[in-house]
Amino acid sequence: MSVLPWICRACRSTNAVHRSKTIRMIQHRSIASNSRYFQVSEEIRQAISDKKPVVALESTIYTHGFPYPENLALASRLESLVRINGAVPATIGILEGVARVGLGADELMRLISQPGSPDLLKVSRRDLGFVLGLKNAEGRPLNGGTTVSGTMVLAHMAGIKIFGTGGLGGVHRGAEQTMDVSADLTELGRTPVAVISSGCKSFLDIPKTLEYLETQGVAVATFADGRTGNIDFPAFYTRESGVRSPMVLPDEEAAAHVIMAQRSLGLQSGLHFANPIPEQHSVAFEVMEKAIDHALEAALTAGAVGNAATPYILAKIKEITGSKSVEANTALVEANVVRAAKVAVALQRLEQSQSVGRNHHQKASSSTITGPGSANYTADGIPTSLASKAEQHQSLQSSNLPSIAQSTPTPTASHSPASSPSEDAVKHGSLGVNDTMVFSMMQEYKKQFQNSVDDLKNDLSSPDQPSDIFVAGSLAVDLACDFNPRSGSDLQSPELQTSNPAQIVQSLGGVGHNVARAAHLMGAKVRLCSAIADDLSGKAALEALSFAEMSTAGIKSLSSSDGNRTAQYVAINDKHKDLVLAMADMSMLEKPQTLTQTLETFWLPQLQSTKPSHLVLDGNWSPEYLSLWLSSAPKSTTITFEPVSKAKSIAPFTLPNILKTYPNPSIHLTTPNTHELSSMHAAAKNNHLFDREDWWEVIDSLGIPHSGARTQISRLTSSKLVDEGIPQMSIQLLPFIPCILTKLGKEGVLLTQILPAGDERLGSGEDAAYILSRNLGGGGGDVVGGVYMRLFPAVEEVAEEDVTRLIETLTAILSPLSPYIPLPQPSPSRTMPFPSLPSPPNLFPTYLVPSNPFRRRRQSSIDTTFSSLTVSSTAASSPENDSFLSGHASHLRCARCLSDLALSSQIISKGFTGRHGRAYLVAPSSAAALPNTHTHKPVPRQLVTGAHTVGDISCAHCGSVLGWKYIHAEEESQRYKVGKFILETKRVCRSSTWESEDEVRRKRRRRSSSSSSVVLPPPQEEEEVEFDSDDEDECEQLFLGKWTQESAREIRRAKASKDFVGG
């Protein structure tokens, strides 16, 4: 009877392994997308994905422990210490009703700029739902600093294993009456995170705290820190507490081994590693005990209980001990995060070494042929699912059923070699009662497992499964044959007309499959629509898709007896894996009769019934079938076209009756390389698609001037790309495909896109630099907002054999990201409140004047367009909205909400440095404050140029911290800055006015009238000159105190003469 419980545990452990794998897979996918309540920064997500060491940091120490700006300085120092020691810091807090893991510098500033504020809460596990779900009396989301408990919860959700903090909560003295026990202790008992601190706060009951941790199953140890013998559990401010530590760790590597062992067992309790305060900062035990006694009495008198007790007691201790406790607190938390970073790095090394060992073992025992075959079968040809169960069955037999092996008869005529020893034992009755029950249970378990596998396959093949993305394209079996010459051979390539030794790697391929696989790994519900034959390759491909848990509902299996063959691609490579010869059999997608019937009766009904949000079509489809896919797609479906090759990329442009234009395009997104883009452009031109009326209507609405935009395009991309015509061709194809991502190889990716009217990027300071043009009423009605163009540089170089897969991965990732939903523009009330100056003309920026004309339809339409634009823009620039800016060349705005802040002419220096890099020194007309800003309370601050008193300034509308105002300077030489403002270049953006056509023509007449002279004559009527802060010569004159209107005129005349000579 003792066997039965053991077997039940085995079954449970097997199910647990399956559940744990499922949980890990779900967690891995969920981390790729954030929710409205929980967000992990991009840096932290990338670090976790790359298996880099990450250390969690709490935020209560900043919001409730230190005053501003000391808390900001401490936060910056702690993150720097983590990075210096090889790990990635993840500061955790609640900002604007969202739990954030990995607070950025700006987010941290907004969170901790007002410590102790009643609106800034202290958040433990129990408070998370309230803080995230509720708002304050003014209807704004809540902010909060996370305690040890709250930080552990969020760190574990993000997948972070190590957490460094100052001190741990614990059992309060007198807890037998108050029952005051910190939630940190219970959290350690149920959240598998390793917490490194200086022990619990010294005013707590340390013996009871350790007893409680033991009850919760928490592993507790103390770092020896160079000591030997009996070592005490630290008491926060002091290294000794009189209470012996349960365990002692010699170094960080030992801690990493403990963490690894605990995680391997799947234990869900945490670990606490106590790190004693550095000896030079340790406070004498007797001194601290006296201060604690006084602080406890004061807290009792003041009635400070619950979560208010700890901050009150710490503040009282600080008051009693003076600066000693503050210095000790700072020193210990710095030592703890350093220790945490080292433990995280040691754990990463340990995990990598074990991973390498596992991979080596797997590699040594795998077959030479890899891919779908070896992914689903062992080296002996046994399916992996059955092999794993067989291993479990054999282990059960060897450890618990010795009588089976002993009583198994030698095979005879009546005993087939194919029958297992256990079956023979059952037939001959040689098993005992318990053993027979065990064997029956194992047989039943095997049957249930096979049923669950069958159910999974049925679910994956069911057409009723919901799918967000349909991918219609090729599925092929790829064979890469890498020449592997025998030792001593000097051959570099395989010999012809004979057999060659090689390493053959088998894998699933095809553009459609690669796109679908990448989307599946990103967590999307994807369905691949393709065809295979019921031959050996087709069955292997289908099995591989099921093994990868991808839907097979769109895979049509055709009879091989009708001559159908699963698509295959064979690449023969030389010794260096360079291609020598390739053979492709893609006849599967080239049989019209078979494909037509399959498309009409199998794929299109699924597409129309499922109504996916995205449809990806690869270029392997002939124009005939591509036309059927495009015309059958639901109206709400976003369609992406992957060109595949130069020859196949032109297919959409051979369908003039199917290819529609924006705002109802047939194709929404495409991802060609430069060669495919050229072929697509040539096909559109040769088929006269650029002469269509609907194409011209969209082109006219883009806001590109009749003379083109070469200068601005060159600034957004590069002169090389403009000379090759890449961005120009993209723009001309936009009416048919409104979002084009051109792959430029080592140069990166060029995004060219039509922005719908109302798109938030049209009003975003961060995106202002990438707006090529804006629709100012010249066509397209309220549909087209402008053109967005941005060059994304390559992040890293990859091997050539990986380029194709990466390209198809890009298509899969970007297909669901095509943004065509109009978003509200910024409120017009956020302009500067200065009245009644005349409205400036507003047609197009002068810097968009090109040297390469952009072809327009008719001259009359040009004049009409410019006329309508001039009237439209003048009407739009009402005094209520743009009055402050009228008559000025450029101005500064908040980069976040575009609130007006200052004129560019008010910049008196560009050579200052702020918190985040370069900054402007601005002297407004009123020294009291900048418009649309809020000045915070003055604080002393040590800057590079000496001691100053400054007040931070933030945007009155969005709250973004923009810089500071100089209130007082200690040194006489720095007092010229008093009353002036620092605006950080990363927090503001510059906006220029627009020139009318009359102004452009006036400048041209002025230039042509002076063509007989090298130096342009000055205008007869001297106009008032405004300081140009973009001109380096004028800035230099201003800094020297020599700038005048006449000197500015001379500078501009000289430059105009130079431009004239050069032109």
UniProtKB/TrEMBL annotation:
<feature type="domain" description="Yippee">
    <location>
        <begin position="890"/>
        <end position="992"/>
    </location>
</feature>
<dbReference type="InterPro" id="IPR022830">
    <property type="entry name" value="Indigdn_synthA-like"/>
</dbReference>
<dbReference type="InterPro" id="IPR004910">
    <property type="entry name" value="Yippee/Mis18/Cereblon"/>
</dbReference>
<feature type="region of interest" description="Disordered">
    <location>
        <begin position="999"/>
        <end position="1031"/>
    </location>
</feature>
<keyword id="KW-0464">Manganese</keyword>
<dbReference type="GO" id="GO:0046872">
    <property type="term" value="F:metal ion binding"/>
</dbReference>
<dbReference type="InterPro" id="IPR029056">
    <property type="entry name" value="Ribokinase-like"/>
</dbReference>
<keyword id="KW-0456">Lyase</keyword>
<dbReference type="InterPro" id="IPR007342">
    <property type="entry name" value="PsuG"/>
</dbReference>
<dbReference type="InterPro" id="IPR034751">
    <property type="entry name" value="Yippee"/>
</dbReference>
<dbReference type="Pfam" id="PF03226">
    <property type="entry name" value="Yippee-Mis18"/>
</dbReference>
<dbReference type="GO" id="GO:0004730">
    <property type="term" value="F:pseudouridylate synthase activity"/>
</dbReference>
<dbReference type="GO" id="GO:0016798">
    <property type="term" value="F:hydrolase activity, acting on glycosyl bonds"/>
</dbReference>
<keyword id="KW-0479">Metal-binding</keyword>
<dbReference type="GO" id="GO:0005737">
    <property type="term" value="C:cytoplasm"/>
</dbReference>
<feature type="compositionally biased region" description="Polar residues">
    <location>
        <begin position="364"/>
        <end position="377"/>
    </location>
</feature>
<feature type="compositionally biased region" description="Acidic residues">
    <location>
        <begin position="1020"/>
        <end position="1031"/>
    </location>
</feature>
<keyword id="KW-0326">Glycosidase</keyword>
<dbReference type="Pfam" id="PF04227">
    <property type="entry name" value="Indigoidine_A"/>
</dbReference>
<dbReference type="InterPro" id="IPR011611">
    <property type="entry name" value="PfkB_dom"/>
</dbReference>
<feature type="compositionally biased region" description="Low complexity">
    <location>
        <begin position="405"/>
        <end position="422"/>
    </location>
</feature>
<keyword id="KW-0862">Zinc</keyword>
<keyword id="KW-0378">Hydrolase</keyword>
<dbReference type="Pfam" id="PF00294">
    <property type="entry name" value="PfkB"/>
</dbReference>
<protein>
    <recommendedName>
        <fullName>Yippee domain-containing protein</fullName>
    </recommendedName>
</protein>
<feature type="compositionally biased region" description="Polar residues">
    <location>
        <begin position="393"/>
        <end position="404"/>
    </location>
</feature>
<feature type="region of interest" description="Disordered">
    <location>
        <begin position="353"/>
        <end position="429"/>
    </location>
</feature>
